[in-house]
Each structure stands twice: as C-alpha cells, then as structure tokens.
Amino acid sequence: MDVDALIGWNFRRLRQELGLSQDELWLRLGTLDQSYMSHLENGELNPTSRTIFRLAGALGVSEGELFQREGVPDAILFSKKTEVKKTRSGRKQKPNKKQKTP
C-alpha cells in the first residue's frame, strides 16, 4: 500500500467534505507551505507524525482518519510504489537499498 497516497487522498477528501479550499486550510495551519499541502494531497510527500497531528487538528478529525481505508481507490490500497520521493526541501530522496558486503 502507498501510505503517502493514502494520507494524501484522505486529506483531500476530508478538506473537501468540510468545504474548505487549500487556501482556507492553509490559513488555519499557518506555517505549512501551500505548495507542500498540494504535494501532500497528491501523495508525493511523506508527512511526519507532527505534520499528521497538525493536519488532523486543522480538519477537526482524529489522526486515524487520515489512515482511513474505506472508499480509497484500489490503485492506492494495492500499490507497490517504490519510486523516488521528494523531501520537504524538494530534493529527491533515493529509496533505501541494502548494501551487499563482499
């Protein structure tokens, strides 16, 4: 499962259910960059636990709601995504690879 995409999908769903635009939610959060929220909704970033806590608070839901699986597209639930992720600074982060010892 692509957990980043799961969190992003739920974040967008909850925001839209509340009738909030990204701008309105950005004003509630205050310190998160608006482009960060867009990347988060698209499943392109791996949010920290602190960020998940803040997002849930701004949406008025429990942190577990961001991990909700009901109604989530199968493409997210059954993904074996291993592509390169971006860090908060926008730099690409390579997946961890176990090094072989000689």
Polypeptide structure, described:
- β1 and β2 (92-93) form a beta hairpin.
- This protein has helices at residues 3-17, 22-29, 34-41, 49-59, 74-77, and strands spanning 85-86, 92-93.
- Strands 1-2 form a two-stranded antiparallel sheet.
- By secondary structure, it is mainly alpha-helical.
How is the secondary structure organized here?
Elements: H1 3-17, H2 22-29, H3 34-41, H4 49-59, H5 74-77, E1 85-86, E2 92-93
Antiparallel strand pairs: 1-2
Which structural class best describes the helix and strand composition? mainly alpha
Mean pLDDT: 82
How do the strands of the widest beta sheet line up side by side? 1-2
Proportion of β residues? under 5%
Listing every helix as H and every strand as E from the N terminus to the C terminus, the arrangement reads HHHHHEE
**Biggest sheet, in brief?**
2 strands, antiparallel
Rg measurement, Å: 15 Å
The global form is globular
Distance between the termini: 33 Å
- The helix content, as a percent range, equals 40-55%
- In DSSP terms (H or I, runs of 4 or more residues), the helix count works out at 5
Q: Compute the number of strand runs.
A: 2
Uncertain spans, ≥5 residues at pLDDT below 50? none
